Amino acid sequence: DAGITQSPRHKVTETGTPVTLRCHQTENHRYMYWYRQDPGHGLRLIHYSYGVKDTDKGEVSDGYSVSRSKTEDFLLTLESATSSQTSVYFCAISPGTGGAGANVLTFGAGSRLTVL
Amino acid sequence: AQTVTQSQPEMSVQEAETVTLSCTYDTSESNYYLFWYKQPPSRQMILVIRQEAYKQQNATENRFSVNFQKAAKSFSLKISDSQLGDTAMYFCAFHPTSYNTDKLIFGTGTRLQVFP
Known about the structure:
The complex is a heterodimer.
Chain A: E1 4-7, E2 10-13, E3 19-25, E4 31-38, E5 42-51, E6 54-57, E7 64-70, E8 73-78, E9 87-94, E10 106-107, E11 111-115
Chain B: E1 3-5, E2 10-14, E3 19-21, E4 24-26, E5 32-39, E6 46-52, E7 60-61, E8 64-69, E9 74-79, E10 88-96, E11 105-106, E12 110-115
Parallel strand pairs in B: 2-12
Antiparallel strand pairs in B: 1-4, 3-9, 5-6, 5-10, 7-8, 8-9, 10-11, 10-12
C-alpha cells in the first residue's frame, strides 16, 4: 500500500532480547518516522529521519535506536525489549518537498510486538 | 508544549445520520496543518482530511467536513450520511510549520461505531 512495507507484521519475543523492525519504502520519500500506538495514548513519535544517516529523537525514544543507511530502509531496534514496549509500531513516510504532497504522512500497515 | 486533545473516547451513530468528532489543540504558532486520520479495524491509517491554518475556508472531502475555529483552537470533524464502513478509530493530528520534517502530534483518538 503506497509503497511502504513493514516487517515483521507480528512478533512475540521475551524480555531482554533484541528486536529489529524494518520499514521499507519504494517512494523515494525523504522523511521517515517510527510511531508507537497504545490505547489511551494515540500515536507517539519514537524517532524520525530526515535523510540517509540523519535521524533524531521523538517524544518516546528511550529504549529505542534507529538507523537509516539507505533512502528506502529505516530500522527500529529495541536493544533489550521490555514489557512496556509491547505495542503496535507504525512506520510513516512523507515526501519532504514543497509540493502538494508535503505534510501528508503515509503509513505502513503496522507491526504488532508482544514482549513477554 | 504543543498538544492535541480529543475529549470523546467513544461515540456511536446510526447509519445515515450525522456525527461530529471534537478536537482541540494548543499551540503558540500561527501557521500549521491539521489532519484527521481514520483507522478501521484493519489497523491501516488513512488520511481523511487536511486543513491549512492560514486558509479560512473549511476543508471538505465528500461526506467529511471540518469546522475549523482558529481562535478557539478547535478542529472538529463532521461525518454526514454515516455508513457502516465509517466504523473506525479517528485521530486528530497537528503539524506546526516550524517543525523540521512533517512529523505529526496526534490526539488519543475517538472510537466511532456506526450502527445499522
